[in-house]
Amino acid sequence: NLATALQTYGRLLVIYDKQPNGALPTYATVMQTRNSAGTASNTAFSDPNFDNKERFTILRDITMVLPSVTNTAGVLTNIGFDQQSKNDINAFNIDIYIKLKGLHTAYTGATAGIADISTGKPPAKKQQQKRKRPTQFAPVPQIYRRGPRMEIKYCDIAASDDNFNLVGGTPWVLLNGVVQGAGNNQRIGNKISMKALRMKGQIINLATALQTYGRLLVIYDKQPNGALPTYATVMQTRNSAGT
């Protein structure tokens, strides 16, 4: 990170493209986030684009915090972490070995960039011809059955930057909501299974006063109605008088 400001996040993505077309895809084509209203956005923490999950495969995803430095003829100065400037990691050496497990690639004999990537049809035809049987040995007819497929396509993380130094307020963010309403597929009454929840980022107290408490709650709503419930609806305290 050669910026002179504070530290920032760095994300390293190694992506396999099953359908190369000779052009480098945009970041939004590979990684994209949609909130509960179906609005698309792109951040450093965007998940794989659900519309193109059949095309791209994430082989490696690494996130790191990079302190800011100034590089002058190989000498690093102005390190972002002032309190621990002598102990900070300023440069991350990347040495990664990834087993591709037989992933196919298409190439030409000429040395050039991504614009020379071919479509891969000749290798596919060659494999098909190699597996071809004689006409007298007809393959046995088979019926392929495929179960229904359903995915949650929208996550709401557009307002995930909530700081604990908000006076009189409680950060309350909808992290995973199913789209409901006009213009979207109605899923009220249908059941959708969620396999996992991934949370990444930092929790930082930006107040200049003394330390404070931070509380992280991950809550599952059994009766979602399309609106974010208030904090008092989920968490509440009552004294002996019932207040």
From TrEMBL:
<dbReference type="GO" id="GO:0005198">
    <property type="term" value="F:structural molecule activity"/>
</dbReference>
<dbReference type="InterPro" id="IPR029053">
    <property type="entry name" value="Viral_coat"/>
</dbReference>
<protein>
    <recommendedName>
        <fullName>Capsid protein</fullName>
    </recommendedName>
</protein>
<dbReference type="InterPro" id="IPR037164">
    <property type="entry name" value="Satellite_virus_coat_sf"/>
</dbReference>
